[in-house]
Specification:
alpha/beta; 14 helices; 8 strands; rod-shaped
């Protein structure tokens, strides 16, 4: 094929997709199922985790968020099967002598206050402080905390300031009641602990630890539930992804295929159409009328380029319609050009030849081979796509 370009007709491509509806539908269903299955397995993996494993995940999440400076703490992004208990303290910092200190060090009030806030948050991480919380609550009596250390406990505690004085403390735990228990113990001890430092004037409890089912945080069905809505969402995402991928794949097949899908493929191959556009049902009367318009053609060979069409039968049907027109043209059918030599002997007695190809099955290469050989003896009137 001298012309290596191929014209892509979107309408014909859509028809091509329609003819492969089963493949498209299967790809969409399979991808939807695979993505949904992946989410199910992922959810099931979480639900199969023990309380100790979930606590470890929270510790890692908060540890990485702190040291990698990524905002992914468990108080804002709570893992499934984990509950948060929140308390608020009002911390009144001692700003006496602040103006003099700020002048001497060139610091602004905001910078000093931010330093105070950071100090207050850091105090909670004190090992002795956290050891006392563990011992007083006897946390190691729980199976999932039997080996907990102060270093572990610090990553179950999130702390930050809202405004200049309000300190938020959030405990993440797999047991809602225990989350509140730890939260209340931490704030009660912290109120006393912070007052030991000179930069703190006073500390007051704004709100004690919330029980995660009291409206602040809704308790989900726990670590054994499967989120069906999420499964459906993932399934829809998979369906869309599957549709996009299969359409893209079929487009590549269509664009680079050697098969004849449209009139444009015939024209790109260097041939003309002998009878106009392809019709879903063969209209022999219309074909005969089109062929009758070739004034200089008297005896025409109708040849199947690859045996995917029945040129002999088609020739007989077209001949009947030509007689009805009162035409003297003669149509001769030949068998498959690629399968036998019938066309070689018959073309010598004809002045013209028309090539029959099958939509979506005949190859351009087969058309070219037939045209190159038979074109030596007879004039080409074009191609008919059936």
């Amino acid at each position: 094929m001298e012309n290596k370009t191929k014209t892509i007709d979107i309408l014909y491509f859509l028809r091509y997709l329609k003819s492969r509806f089963v493949i498209v539908a299967a790809a969409v269903i399979v991808c939807a199922g695979l993505v949904a299955a992946y989410d199910y397995k992922k959810q099931k993996g979480v639900s199969d985790k023990s309380g100790k494993e979930l606590l470890k995940d929270v510790m890692i999440q908060n540890h990485n968020s702190f040291y990698k400076n990524v905002s992914n703490y468990s108080d804002a992004n709570k893992p499934k099967g984990v509950y948060n208990s929140e308390a608020k303290l009002y911390v009144d910092f001692d700003y006496s002598g602040l103006a003099e200190t700020a002048d001497q060090n060139g610091m602004r009030f905001q910078e000093i206050n931010a330093g105070y806030e950071k100090d207050a948050c850091t105090i909670i991480k004190d090992g002795k402080f956290l050891s006392e919380v563990i011992e007083e609550l006897n946390l190691r009596s729980y199976d999932d905390m039997n080996d907990i250390t102060p270093g572990d406990l610090q990553w179950l505690i999130n702390r930050n300031f809202t405004g200049a004085h309000v300190m938020n403390i959030v405990i993440s735990d797999v047991k809602p009641d225990r989350a509140k228990l730890i939260c209340d113990k931490v704030i009660s001890k912290l109120v006393v602990k912070l007052k030991e430092y000179d930069f703190v004037k006073d500390v007051k409890v704004i709100s004690e630890g919330t029980l995660p089912n009291d409206g602040y945080y809704s308790i989900d069905t726990g670590s054994k539930s499967i989120d069906k809505k999420q499964l459906i969402k993932y399934g829809l995402v998979g369906a869309v992804l599957g549709g996009v991928l299969i359409v893209a794949f079929l487009f590549l097949l269509y664009a680079f295929s050697d098969k004849i899908f449209s009139e444009a493929d015939v024209i790109d191959a260097g041939y003309t159409l002998a009878a106009g556009s392809r019709r879903k049902n063969v209209d022999y009367k219309r074909l005969a009328g089109s062929i009758n318009l070739f004034k200089d053609a008297e005896k025409i060979l109708l040849v199947s380029v690859d045996g995917k069409t029945d040129a002999v039968k088609d020739a007989e049907e077209i001949s009947k319609e030509l007689k009805a027109f009162g035409s003297n043209k003669k149509i001769v059918g030949a068998g498959s050009f690629s399968g036998d030599v019938d066309a070689f002997s018959k073309v010598e007695d004809c002045d013209s030849v028309i090539y029959l190809v099958k939509y979506g099955k005949s190859r351009i290469k087969s058309l070219e081979e037939a045209g190159d050989m038979l074109g030596r003896s007879a004039k080409s009137l074009g191609v008919i796509i059936l």
